[in-house]
Amino acid sequence: METASPATEMLGRLIAFDTVSRNSNLDLIAYAQELLEKAGATSRLTYDADKRKANLFATIGPARDGGYVLSGHSDVVPVEGQDWSSDPFKADVRDSRLYGRGSADMKGFIAVALSLAPEFGRLELKRPLHFAFSFDEEVGCLGVRRLLEDLKTANIRPALAIIGEPTEMRIVAAHKSGSVIETMVRGREGHSSAPLRGASAVMILIGLSRIGQPTQKLLRDLKRPPEGANLLRISMMRRWTSYSTVLRRTNLQQSSRKRSTAY
Ligand SMILES: [Zn+2]
Fold first, then answer.
1. How high is the pLDDT of residue 35?
2. Rounded distance, CA 176 to CA 77, Å?
3. Strand, coil or helix: what is 107?
4. 177 C-alpha vs ligand 1 centroid, how far in Å?
5. Do 33 and 47 contact (CB within 8 A), yes or no?
6. N or C of the chain: less Cβ packing under 10 Å?
7. CA-to-CA distance for 230 and 257, rounded, in angstroms?
């Protein structure tokens, strides 16, 4: 039988911590902190307001400027309403693939970094090697801001960071940008028995959301959309009145991501 590599074993352990963003990540962080300290790292923690979640920043090697940061977020997206064929919080290897929530995004990278920590600890490093594991990335990169503030206060200045987001093993030099467009439509209220007397805000909105669709379709049909292409998606629609009336007011939220530069 194939024996699991240290990184795969580590990944199994990390997946077993249910760190969906709404939950605490303290158990995972404590586990990683202990492991890094055993490898000779010094570490610091920063917390959210309720102290339910923490960022971990740890350093192996000399306390001086420069060095690299191996950076990852500890939280994962929810699993509700998804058709999982195995327990999402138990790493399951099938046909040489490892299944589990966060296996790619991005506990896989953290597992590789942690499993190599003892080896890094034995090296005579000339520059520091840092580990940064943040909370609440999936809900708007909220946690890392505290970590960055703390680094600024402590005057810790690494040279660059390697962020272990899944990129299909390509080096990506910059992150996608994101923007949110909110459109509010006002129609005219009326009873649903006589829709022609009102002007449904939703119907207007559906029409509006089709603007630009031919371009979007062209972009989506391309294997690799050109750099800077805006890929739109409708992320939220909100209604303001009941089903029996022709809606007077509604909201549409579209978000777009500009494609990043990949090498
Ligand atoms: Zn991610």
1. 98
2. 19
3. helix
4. 14
5. no
6. N
7. 6
Least Cα distance to 32 among 20, 47, 44, 49 occurs for 44
The alpha carbon of 169 and the centre of ligand 1 are apart by a number of angstroms equal to: 14
* Shared fold status for 6-163 and 177-258: no
Q: Which residue in this structure is represented by tokens 């138990």? A: 90
Render 227-238 in DSSP notation, one character per residue: TT-EEEEEEEEE
| Superfamily in which the 6-163 domain is placed by CATH | Zn peptidases (3.40.630.10)
CA 72 to ligand 1 center in whole angstroms: 8
Which candidate, 196, 176, 180, 177, places its Cα nearest to that of 188?
Answer: 196
CB atoms within 10 A of CB 12: 19
Residues annotated catalytic, as ranges: 75, 137
Structure tokens at 111: 């597992």
Per-residue pLDDT of the chain (263 residues; tens, 9 = 90+): 457 899 999 999 999 999 999 999 999 999 999 999 999 999 999 999 999 999 999 999 999 999 999 999 999 999 999 999 999 999 999 999 999 999 999 999 999 999 999 999 999 999 999 999 999 998 888 899 999 999 999 999 999 999 999 988 888 887 777 777 777 888 888 887 887 888 887 788 788 777 777 777 777 787 777 766 777 767 677 765 555 555 566 666 766 666 655 54
The contacts of residue 19 (CB under 8 Å, 6+ apart) are 25, 28, 74, 75, 76, 102
Pick the CATH number of 177-258 from 3.40.50.2300, 3.40.50.720, 3.10.20.30, 3.30.70.360: 3.30.70.360
Cα(112) to centroid(ligand 1), Å? 15
Domain ranges of the chain: 6-163, 177-258
